[in-house]
Structures are given as C-alpha cells and as structure tokens.
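Notes to self after the call with IL:
- keep both proteins in one doc
- input above output, always
- annotate only the second one for now

Protein 1:
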Amino acid sequence: MITKLQSTWIGRLSLNFESVRRINQYRNCANRVFPTSSSFLKVDGDRYYSNPVEKRELPNEKMAAMNSKRVIKEGLAEIIGPSGNNVFYNPVQQFNRDLTVAVANVAADEHRDITAAVANVAVDNDEHQKSTSEKERGIKPNKFTILEALSATGLRSIRFAKEVRGVTMVTANDLSLSAVDAIKANVIRNNVEDIVEVTNSDAVTLMMNAVRGCHGYNLVDIDPYGSPSVFLDSAVQGVTPGGILAVTFTDTAILNGNHSEACYSRYGAVSLHNFSFGHEMSLRIGLHAISQAAARYGRCITPLITLKADFYIRLFIRIHHSPVKVKDNVCRTAIVYACPHCESRWFQHLGVIRATDSQGGLLYAPATALTDLPHDGVCSHCHTRLRVGGPIWVAPIHDREFVSSVIKHLHEHSNSANYCTRQRIDGLLHMINEELSDIPLHYSLDRLTAAIKLNRSPSQLEFRSALLNAGYRVSYSHTHQNSIKTDAPSGLLWDILLQWERCRSEQHEDKLNANNPAVMQLRKRNPSMVVDFNIHNDAIPPSKVKGLSRFPPNPEPNWGPLSKARCHSPPTLHSDSPEHKVRRTEEEES
C-alpha cells in the first residue's frame, strides 16, 4: 500500500523526469539555421524555414502587417518596431549599440591588417608557413564574422552588416520564434540577406556547435536580459584566437553587493555592499568571472574597454589561446579587505611570480600574507571591522591603444549619421584613457569627508592638487562623478582632509563625533607631512578642459531597463506535434 508521502515523492520524481525529457528535446530541436541569402520553405502553418536555392519572401499579408507598424531608424538600419512585448527592444541601449559598432569596425580593421601581414609573409615564404601561421593565429583570410547570440529585433546585427567595413557574415540568433520572425522581416527590409544569417537556436548550443565545427567568430556579442553567467563558458570558446568577446551585465544590483551570495554563485566572487567603488568592483568581478571561464579551456583575456553606463556594465575583451599565459591569472587576482566606514582597502594577491626557469619560463608560487594587513581584522585608521570581498581582477581593465583607436575611428566619422551618441562615447572613452589603469578601486571625495565629519568638503580641484603636489598620481573613474583614483596611501588622504580643515579653522566637536568612535579615531591623527594646496597644472583632466561630455544626465524620465519579452521557444523536435501547434497558435494570437 502506497502512503500519501510516498505518492507525493513519486509525483515529484515523475515531474523531474518529465523536465529532463523536455530539456533534451528542446536541446535537440535547436540549431535550426536560416541562411538569409535563401528563401523560406513552408514546413508547418505559416512558419517558414530556409531553402538555400530559391529567393525567399515573406507572405504579402505579413509584409503588409509589418509595414503598417512604427519604423525605427538607428544608424544605417531601419527596422519595424515590435508590437506588444513579444520581442525585446530598448531605445536606451542605442549608446551600447553605437559603441559596439565602433569597436567592431576597429576590430575588423585590425583583422584586415593582420591578414594582409600574413599574406605578405606567405609571399616571401612557402605555402606551408602561410597555412601554419594562419592556423596558429586563428586567422581566416578575408573573413570577418560576427555572432549576436541574443538578437531580439536583429537591429544590432543589421547595423553590423551595413556599417562594419569588411564584415563577411553576421549571425543573428534568438531562441524566441517571435523574435526570429521579426529578424527575418527586418533583414529583408534592409536588403542584407547576403550577409546576415538568421538562426533559431539556444545560444549556448549554437556557440558550442561552432567550437565542434572548428569555426569560431571574430566577434561574439552577448547582451542578455539579466546575468550572462550561463553563456560565458561557451562564449569564450566560440571566439577565434585574438577575437573579441562583448558582454553586457544588467544584474548590477547583485554585482553591487545587494545579494553577495547570489553574486558568488553566479560569478565566483563576493561583492561588497554600500561602497562608493561598487560599480568599478562590478567591472572587476565580471572580468574575474570571464577570466576563470576562459582559463578552463586554455584561454586568457586582455580587457580592451570596460565601462559602466546607465543601468548596466559592458565589457569588451580580447580572447587569446595560450595555456601558458593562463597561469598569470593567479597574479592578476586578489581578495579585497575594505573598511565600511572610511573605505580604506588592502589587496591580498593569490599568487606571485617566484622566478624563471632555465628556459626563461615563469615559475609561480602562492602569495604570502600581507605584512600591512591590520591586526585582528580591524581598520588601522578608524578601528572598524573590515569586510572581505572578491576575488576580483586587479590588473588593468582598459587597453589605452585600443581605446585610442576607437576614438580615432569616431573622429574620422564625425559627420556620419552612424553614431547618434558619438559625443557621449567620445567623452567616456577620453575619461577611460585618463584613468590610472594599474590602480584597482577608487575613493569618493564625499564619502571621505563624511567619514571624518567635515563641515565643508574641499573641491575636487583642491584635493587633486594636494595629491599631485605630494608626488602621487591621481585621476577620475568614469564610474563615479566624485571619484578619486590614486596611488597614494590611505593615511595621506586623511592627512589632507585634516590639514585642509585646520587651515580654515573649521574644527568642530559635536555630539555625533563624540558618540562615533570611528570618527574620533580618525580625528586623532597627527598629519605626517605638510600638504600643499596650491592648484596643480594637471589637476584638471584634459577631457574636462576640452568640454567633453563626461557624466551626462539621463535624457528622459524612466531611463532604464524595460520588462522582459515573453519568449516563445519550440518545445519539441516535431513541428506537427499537438503541443507545438498549441504553442504556435498562442504565439500568433498574442
């Protein structure tokens, strides 16, 4: 006799087996490819699939319905705006798309130069050397391919096809059947059928099939709704050697420490909450996650451009195939000890380069414990207990040469209609080039003055001048408008603030300070040096002198993420199955 408890568990097991069965069927029915240079072959209902021989056309009634909807123009592309919430489109991301197109143009130019150099070498040497060089570098002569794994309306893929010089193929993929229909209609509208290939597949499966087929992409774009963590392992493998991976993270609340346990489960790092450097730490956690995913497959990364914009972070990373250089990751990763009151921080690296062997190779060893780490886990400045975060990427997060190439490209196309957000991109990239690339995490001037309870804060110009006059470097961070990024020790920052206050006879002792041991501890400091507040010539960054757009306000209210589109994906292999027909009917009616 089966008890009630036993029947409950039998039901749960049945549901689990059914879920596994449906997932396997869903995986198998992915990878349906729609070459856009082909026609559609009617398979079921009014759903059309590719035929590589005939010229394709959508039914007249569908094209008429598409043409009656609103038209969206961006760059050189013109698409039909989605109706309802079946296909995702967010106009806020135009900045993201403009920047990605600019990066793709620079990457295509680099690829063309490398291909030409390899061809020149082949002229002077035999054909064997040519094939070997191309194979080692992952270069496909005269081919530059792009994958947009989550394409939605296909707007970005169409812009790639029409605006990137030298691109030979763009794959626009989406799992949603509604999105695939929208992409195909927009591709036809823009006459890029010979370049854009439309696929209806799971993004992970598509990228892994590219790996199995020994053909990767020169640029892979991952722009999901939410976390990209599930795509990272396949994405780093789907990029050709020397290619670029572009990833967007929109789960910034988790990366900023609102749910540190969720951040650890997704990215293998603990984020810190309520710190002014939260956005920069988000960038470094993202880089750490991608570097770990790449290392598992013998690949290493070089960050080209990493930025915080609006409600998301965006990373452009070059992927190299080098199992030897993967070992450097241990020296580029560190645990963070940060004070929640004064934001002083210490970095514990995980490994160091010990020596070189007889053949010139590097030997690595575990790092030793920090000698200046505060005793008993409390801050040496304000005696507040420290918090532990990370591990994070502590190596440079930008490639200044590549950033300069993108800036040059934008200036060469200053009169072009391709980049409507060119001024914002130009200002942001100039700020990125001005950042101290070797200094992880910045301070915030308002948080520093709040920690010490000053009546009035010194200006950025005065504070930056004091650091420069003391012989240290200083810069802004593009992630925070009131940021201070410097190689000066934390103690000097408190010396500057205390001397600034005492020079102006603005000392005050109130009940708040008396009841706050951390504030009182900071105010007991005796400055170790005389601070020079005379304005330094380099205190004003060049981007500000030029009047570039540095921290623009939101252009309109409710400037942020939109609700997620309702995704309709094929549940089984059999397009004539009853379940598939019901799902298809519901989609068409919606």
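Protein 2 (the one to annotate):
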Amino acid sequence: MAFRVPEIYDNPDGWGPSNVVGQVKSIPYAPYNKGERVGRVADWSGQANYRGARQRQPASDTQVNSAFFFTQENEDDFQLVDMSKPTKRYGNHRRFYYYNKPYWNNRNRRGRQDEAPAKNQPRQKMSKAKMNARARYMSYRRWGNQFDHKPPREASVHVRKDWKVVQEFPLGDLQKAEASIQAPEDLAFCGKVQAYDDAYDRVGTRSERVLERKERTFFNVTTSDDPVIQELAKGGKGNVFGTDTILAVLMCATRSVYSWDILVRREGNNLYFDKRENSQIDFLTVDETAAEPPTDDKEDDTINNAQSLSREATYVNQNFSQQVLSDSKAGHEFERSNPFLEEENPDETVASVAYRYRRFPLAGGEYNIVVRTELDGMQVVKTGEKKGTRQYFTIKALNEYDPKKDIDWRQKLDIQRGAVVATELRNNSCKLARWTIQSLLSGSSTLKLGFVTRMNSKSNKQHVVLGTQFYKPKEFATQIHLNIRNSWGILKTIIDACMKLDEGEYVLLKDPNKPLLQLYDVPPGGLDGPDAEEEEEEEAAANPMLNFTSLLSGASFVPDASVPVVHVARNEKNE
C-alpha cells in the first residue's frame, strides 16, 4: 500500500494556512497569542481558570469554547464526614503564647524561695473589700467586661405605692429651655461676716497649710422654717420661695447623675421649694460625673467609698470656709442678727455666714422668686474706683483623695493649675455648676476655690491646703460652659408645671437610672407617716435589689468617728 503525501498549502505572505480547508471548516478554533504559555494541548471541559488568574483565557474564549460545554452534576452538597475523635484541650491554650520559658523558670525559682515556713502558720485574713476586688479582677480576666453590669442605683427617697406621677420632665427637653430675669432686688441682710485673710493667696505646694478643725455651728434650715421667708411671704414680697442650695440643684438638674429629691408645697398662690431633713443635697458629692465614680457598695467600708467621701468633702468645705477668714481684721455685722440663733444658747459659736434675701423677677414679673442666699466672707477694696467698698465672697473647697487617680496636685498644682481645674470640671461638673449658681444668686463678686488634699492618702483625718484660686462668677460660668439662660429656663419650666397643681405636697425626684425628673403627688402624711418605714422594710425583704444602699440617701450619712463632721443645727422653733 503506497503512502499518500497530503497536500501542503504554502502561505508566502505570513504564518498559517492561506485559505480555509473544507475538512476543518466546521471545527471551532480558539485563537491565542504566541507569547502565552500553553498548559494543556486541549481543554475539553471549557473551563479556562485552571492556571489561576494570571493565565486565564480571554473573555472571548468562552464564546469560542461553548461548543465543548457539557452538563455536570452539582456536588456542592457533598460533605466528607470525619469519624475520628477530636483531641480534647483544657483551658485557654492561647495563654501559653504570652509567657516564655525564662519567665516560668524565674517564677518557679521565686516560688521556692517564698514558700511558707510552716503549715501551722495562720493565714492572713482578707477584708471583704479586697475579696470583692479580687473576684472582680479574676472575673474580668476570664470573661472580660461582658458581664460587668453595675447594679441599678436606688432613689434618694422611697417611692410609696400611693404616690402618683403628675408630670415628667426629660432632661433632654430641659436642656432646650431658656428664660431671662430682671435685675434682682435686696430685701434683707442678716448675720455677720468676717474679713478674708490675704495670706492664703500666697499658699502653694511648698508652703502648704494644715487644715484646722473649727468647732462652729452651721445652720441649714429649709425654706418653710425660715422666719424671714415667712415674714416676706406674709408681706406679699413674692410668690415663689426657696434657698440658694435648693434652687441651684434645680437649675443644674441636667448635669446631675445621682438621685435627689425636693419637696414642693403649694399653699394658696405661693409655691415653696423645701428639702427633707438629712437630705442628700446638704452634702457634697465627689467625682459624680467622673468616668469611674466611687463605689456605692454597702460592703465596701473603705474611706474611698461614695458615702465616706461625701462626708469628708462636706467636712473639708466647712472648715476651709472658716479657716481662710481673719480673726484680727474687722468684719461686718448687719442690722438683723442671725435668724436661726437660738435664744437659749447666746454664747454658741456660730459660723461666719451672712444671709442675703433677694427677689428675682422671672418671666416679666409673673413670678417673683425670693431666695435666701449665703455670703461666706468679705474684703474691703483698697485701690481703684471702688476703694473703700465691701466685696462679698463665696468660699468653697475642692478636695483630692487619691493622687494616683488623675493628677497629683502636689506636683502639678503650681505649674499646671489649668489642667487640675479641667480635671475637676470633668469629674465634678455638677458640683462646680451648683457653686457657680449659688455665687450668682448671692451676688458675690468673687468665687474663692481652695485646693485641699489629704496629708496621707490612706487616712481621711488630716488634710492640708495646697493653694487657692479666685474667679469671677460670670467668667467662671462661661469657662465651665454653664448657660445661665438655660438654668433659669429649667427653673421656669418647673415653676410653670407646679403652679398648675392643686394645693398640697409634692415630691420632685431625679430618677436614679434615667435622665428624667418625676413629679409625684404625695398624700397627706405620705413622707413621714407611720406606715412608710414598715412598707419600705417589707419591700426590701421581698425584693433583694432594694437592699442596695442608695448612693447619697439621707439615712446613709451617719456620723463616723473617723471623720469629724461639723454639727449642723436646724431651726426647731417653728416646727
């Protein structure tokens, strides 16, 4: 059989056949570049991604190779079952990556050196506070902060079942309220005020002064028991009455975090804002607006819990306000004596405080607010146009209890006083705002701030004064971003709602866990009735959550022997 040589077509103009041969006319052809790598001779599956993204066929290849496509069964539901038993791991295996071998060797070596000398030696007893702190630390290491839910705070006053909510004031809405007042009018001056000692303006961290204990009586009488306010109410001098402390709490309600309560009493056309006996607003708060406020755990009996710090701050503030006054300089005594001084004790040492009664026309004179304000000190101007005139002060004190918490005052107060004030503004925004409002209500020309710290951070019995700073109340309000028009707007909103009520007693309560003010209608005898205490004990026994002590409840402020508390006297003649 002879071999037949096929016909060869020569293309003199280029590479490849010159014309299409009839035998290969119906066979599809995939063009390719000469520079591409040919991985396979023929791809009958039609999939062009077998060489990865860099060696994929052009997009036109799918159209050319469509003749070779075929239907393939879907194998996505197929799973390979592993019947082998998995190895069990104990604990968190990732923790071994955090330590290296030399660390463990050194740790074991130290452990052998620190072995207990004898098994019969009694173990050191750990306090409950340390045990709780250790349990929280171990829980955080194991679970993180996913279970770190703080228990809800309790209200400052026990809300009984027969109390009815009359109206609610969301703090977000109160932030938008605004109002303006007219020029205030002085109605009466009472008491005696001493002169300020200029030597405390030169006190610094290198020339600190020991805080002395002053055995003096401070009066803290509520609005309705004030004989001067009763006299002004009978004379028709106003229709809204209150003290600077109570009104400052209302006007700074949007900054408060802790729960507080104020008694509202409608009597005829008059409105009285009162406080309960042993109310929490009589005591200062510490780090109320801080990121990590003091603990309010009942089992935490340390000196840095919320209750102990509140008593300590009140003690420091009262003694500082009396220590910076001069006994040698002549003070000023007003025509009317102290209205709360009892006749039975004429020789009683009374704190140097003057009472200034002022009237503020609000809402175009619709409300005439009569306020009892306090003046802590005075100073005679020696130079300038006001030479020889008296200027009155409001004296307050900031206290430091832990130098390692934020900024050490002993190191930064003289060189970075602005940073110290900024830190206190962040941690005690509500307290500083209340002090500023009280200064503006009293008409003080200067707000004197003292910086007091513990002599030893582990003891709250002895303190030292590290420095003083004075501010103009209006300028300080701008510095701390306190909107005065908004403060008066908050007060006007509350007065508008209370003036629509019927005669009787009401309680305005700051919700302990929500940004909300609630106005309750209290039946007669609902606050101090005989069944109030029994009902509170029954609910506390039925609900374990009620056993948590309120952060600043009136019953929690029991005088402690560790911190001497200045006696606070109250007027009992009109009760």
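Annotation: Residues 269 and 375 are 30 Å apart (CA to CA). Confidence is low (pLDDT under 50) at residues 50-65, 93-101, 107-116, 539-575.
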